[in-house]
Amino acid sequence: MAKVLMKGNEAMALAAIKGGCDAFFGYPITPQNEIPEYLSTHMADHGRVFVQAESEVAAINMVYGASGAGARVLTSSSSPGIALKQEGISYMAGSELPCVIISVMRGGPGLGGIQPSQGDYNQITRGGGNGDYHVLAFAPETLLETVDIVKQAFDLADYYRNPVMIAVDGLIGQMMEPVDLDKKPPRKKLKPKDWAAEGLSGVRGHRNTIVSLHLDPYELEKHNLRLKKKYDEMVKKEQRYEMIRMDDAEIAIVAYGSVARIARSAVLTLREKGIKVGIIRPLSIWPFPEKAFVETPDSVHTLLVAEMSLGQMLQDVKIVNNGQRTIKFYGRAGGVVPEAEEIVKEVQKIVRGRQS
Amino acid sequence: MKTQTIYQKSSGLTARALTYCPGCTHGVIHKLVAEVLVEKGLLETAVGIASVGCSVMSYEFFNCDMQQAAHGRAPAVATGIKRVRPDATVFTYQGDGDLASIGMAEIVHAAHRSENVTVIFVNNAIYGMTGGQMAPTTLIGQKTTTSPRGREQAQTGLPLRMSEMLATVPGATYLERVSVHDPKHIRKAKKAIEKAFDVQTKKQGFSMIEFVSTCPVNWGLTPQDSLEWAVENLISYYPLGVFKDATAGEDHEN
Ligand SMILES: Cc1ncc(C[n+]2csc(CCOP(=O)(O)OP(=O)(O)O)c2C)c(N)n1
Ligand code: SF4
């Protein structure tokens, strides 16, 4: 099929249907409302389940139940709503239940605002739920990439038996862009869900239980270590990133999502001025793509981290950089989207600083 | 001499020994639910949801597929399961702290949407598992670890009557409060559970059976005195009976 023009949130919703999503549970919040609105009719048309829950707390627990019964399940929300889902996400990680969560980030803290933001990087990559757990998290840059990753996310969730988050800012949710919904992303080889507690103990010949409780500390530690093995596998296999004009770069802008798009135009302007600048663009934000920094050429002396937050991914960059290169930061917050010109100026400042 | 089995543990329960305190009526309620699931041929298709409370381990006891839910969220988990597996028999097993306090929104909205699930609600007027704190269902004057002088209305309001409250929710289909303090009431309670699962089998919507239950340990009474205390105090505030039966007309037509 040729590419079609769609609004971000609707494209993600349709991608979920194409990715084999059996059920959606959610609660209204701006700027992601087009996802449940679209699914409210289209899920039924595909013979699938749509429920508008009484809260995000209920929604994520419906996701838990449906996923525990073996279904492919989606929920979506925005910042304050994702905050409410954290309890359920921790339970799902603990019970090893797959699900896909779309987070369309807006400004915070508190009720904050409804304009695009990347202020939930920590919420998503660190998690607000209790215990030693991680969720796989991707922060795509274009709608084309978003649609692909939404489809893959269901396979990844099933493969790891773990929640997968798609983190986009409100810009991607609201923009119109061409998407190709029939493109087949790479598939994972999946085992049957013989662990599901779906009311088939009679057919199966034994009962299944979905549980995150382990009262014996040695048992729980064993469980924690088993989970860690999965997280280690994710760190090994799921680091995703793009190196943009990095071959001869001396300065690398580190940016993801919409900020990476803006950085691309900044790079064009700067290259015209003869400044050797590239972009390290994380697509996976957990696991954070350490490998990209290993691959970064020696010619790069400075990393400019640019975010729509006051410095959250910055902490991960500092960790992987380990004091090697100079790190500068440029952030806008509250729903203010930086202009390419602002990034150009920041890079020029770095260049001037080195000349003086 | 030939031996004959005249009574045995229900096959609806696993071989695991129950972890409840001696004399606690959680055990009888487990037995009744298990027996009904077996007798109605529903055990093989059942998914139970264990809640957070003394019954948290019930996923080890009911001999069917089980999911363990976060505190208060069992009705939401049940919703998720039933919506994707409509042929499964879905029930939650919840205490009064779980259902009437932290899980208030989830229980009301499961009833509101008339989710076709069955709720087993065990009301012992106290938080058992955490050591006997006050619940929304604790009686006025009842001593708990967070109302050591007895529950006072001025500070804490009046005890919540969940069956009566849910009876005002248009979507609720069948609501009955029962007790298990003597054989006669135990038989009646079993009938109520049967009715609730019938409602689900006939896809008639939300059903809940509330049990007046005991907590001898945290009430500071012997098992026998607990039963008497429940009859004298709890049942007079929480009267037994059917609070809603929206199937009355429907059953006739079917
Ligand atoms: C979110 C959360 N808050 C608090 C607790 C602690 N907690 C465990 S059981 C319980 C009370 C359960 O009481 P009830 O539902 O009345 O059941 P019972 O133990 O009396 O059978 C509480 C508050 C918890 N596990 N999770
Ligand atoms: S603490 Fe109370 S409710 Fe819990 S098992 Fe013991 S007697 Fe029963």
Summarize, please.
The complex is a heterodimer of chains A (356) and B (254). By secondary structure, chain A is of the alpha/beta class.
CATH class of the largest domain in chain A: Alpha Beta
Major interchain interface with per-chain residue totals: A-B, 41 and 39 residues
- Count of helical stretches of chain B: 11
The overall number of domains of chain B is 1
* Total of helices of chain A: 13
Spatial arrangement of strands, main beta sheet of chain B:
2-1-3-4-6-5-7
Tell me the distance between the termini of chain A.
55 Å
Explain what the structure shows.
Chain A has two domains: 4-237, Thiamin diphosphate (ThDP)-binding fold, Pyr/PP domains (Rossmann fold), CATH 3.40.50; 241-355, Rossmann fold. In chain A, 43% of the residues lie in helices and 19% in strands. Chain A starts with a strand and ends with a helix. The mean pLDDT of chain A is 96. Chain A contains 13 helices and 15 strands. In chain A, the strands form three sheets. In chain A, strands 3-2-4-5-7-6-13 form a seven-stranded mixed beta sheet, sandwiched between helices. In chain A, strands 10-12-11-14-15 form a five-stranded mixed beta sheet, with helices on both faces. In chain A, strands 1-8 form a two-stranded antiparallel sheet. In chain B, strands 2-1-3-4-6-5-7 form a seven-stranded mixed beta sheet, sandwiched between helices. In chain B, strand 1, helix 2 (58-61) and strand 2 form a beta-alpha-beta unit. In chain B, helix 1 (26-39) crosses helix 8. The radius of gyration of chain B is 17 Å and the shape is globular. The model of chain B has no long low-confidence stretch (mean pLDDT 96). Classes of the chains: A alpha/beta (356), B alpha/beta (254). The A-B interface holds A 22-23, 25, 49, 51, 53-55, 57-59, 61-71, 73, 87-88, 91, 95, 197-203, 207-213 and B 43-47, 49, 56-57, 59-60, 63-70, 73, 76-85, 87-90, 105-106, 108-109, 112-113. Strand 9 (209-210) of chain A pairs parallel with strand 2 of chain B. Thiamine diphosphate (TPP) binds at residues 52-55, 71, 95-98, 122, 124, 126-130, 135 of chain B.
